[in-house]
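quick one, 174 residues, struct below
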Amino acid sequence: MVQPTEPPKDTRFTSRVVGHMEYVDWYLWTAKDYPTWIHNNDPVIQNDGMVAILPRYDDYYLYLAGSRTTYMRYDETLTEGLYDHQWRYLINNKAKVEMITVYSWNEYHERSQIEPCSDYTANVSDVHLYMKTRNYITEFRKAIASNPAPFMNVIISASIFLLILSIVLKYIGK
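---
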């Protein structure tokens, strides 16, 4: 059995440095003016076709609680269209994309999740970001069907898998 923390050094596994600094292989995500060397809201498609996007980011409340010395806020009320812009960019640049990762771990404290939740700062349904993600994945797949790339995946956090099942039953299956 392969140990996840110690994968064999063979062609089945590839290591990448992921983060926000200039030296990384894959940017974790990008948003307006962060970091300063990224000049717009376009997601960065890496040379190998990997790209990460996020629906929003807001750690302001951690800052208020004293847990952080600074804070970042990107589309905190879901009215700036950050997520829509990123998906449109990927659809328009589909030939360059091999793998999309949606930064949406169950990071409720950073408000970047797409899992269903009540959001008192935005006038949206509990499943707004989940449904938006689902619709954009469908649209992206249709776009590449007319001009298929050799390989393309959309990856979302592992915690969403079980939530997807419950959402389908609760909201879509009725």
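Residues 29-172 form one domain.
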